[in-house]
Amino acid sequence: MNLQEIEESLKASYSHRFKTTDTRVAHCITELLKSPVDINEISLEAIKIVATTILDSETQKQFSELEKLQEQKEQIERAIEKQSETLQETKYRVFHALENELSTNQSTLSKLHQVKLQSIDLFNILSDMVESVIITALEKDSDGNIQETTSEALKDITYEAIKEGSLNTIRTRKILSTILHSSIEIAEATPNRAQEILSATLKGMRGGLLKAIDRFKQRLAFMPVEAKHILIEDYDTIIEDLNQTDTLFSQVIQTQAADSSQLIKETLLAINKEMKYDLDELLRMSKETADIMKNRFSTFAKVAVKKADYALKSPRAIEAKKMGTQALEIAKTAIDSALKSAKDAIDKKK
Known about the structure:
The chain is mainly alpha-helical. It has 3 domains: 3-79, no CATH class; 121-311, no CATH class; 314-350. It is built from 14 helices and no strands. The chain has helices at 3-13, 21-33, 44-101, 106-119, 126-140, 147-163, 169-189, 194-220, 225-233, 235-242, 245-258, 262-274, 276-311, 315-349. Helix 7 packs antiparallel against helix 8 (194-220), helix 7 (169-189) runs parallel beside helix 11 and helix 9 (225-233) crosses helix 13 (276-311).
């Protein structure tokens, strides 16, 4: 039988009237062997046709259901994205209305803006916010020093952007990179103020990150049980991230510096070098937080390890172990075959 005939035979004989996978597969193979197929001489291509045809027949229903679920997932994700944008726009409208009503009192308006900063999802508008802060500071600058107010504003923005999400390297790096990149663009366009702009930005970023870590440290003591379990799932990653925040901060600076002009690059690296002691404080706070986490949640982590041990006995883990053994057998067979071929070739030469 050729490959097409084997495939057609398997499709015709595969039937779900048999109750189990084993009996369905056994029936298929039995029917196939009634035809002129020598199972001992069957090729790899034929074995592949046998396996894939039976797999397709057995999983057709599940595959169809999975496709439907995937379509539903994509629809839900689009709906979530659209609703998130609507929610954000509604928040903007509410605060805009409140600002109009409270515009006569500058002190009250300033407090409202603080609440707004804490209530709006900053991640998607981070770049524009940073640009607005720095440009406004430059425009309103009267004494030639924008560092204090700019760094304080960027500290709040960095803190608010980081604090509500997961305290992991990827997310934190993206936030810091976005803030610094926006600052660099303005510094490139205003080279005579680059030192002030970048110094204020790095100081603000460091302060915001420090504040976010300190908040996380304080919240560890009051974290609900549900959140503890979420924390334990990412226990090792968070501990590792907390022990290298100074490196993370410096890497963000170095990466952005590498993509900038020579002037900006030299300025950034010089400021980063001057900030050594500030970064020591950041690392100290991070390590304190990591120690608290270890002391409070190490027991939970041990329980998680026990659960992982149990998971190693799951059908999936058993199958993985089985396939690993089979992979070694395949490699051994290939090596033995190669050695035999080489030996046969030598014997022929003799």
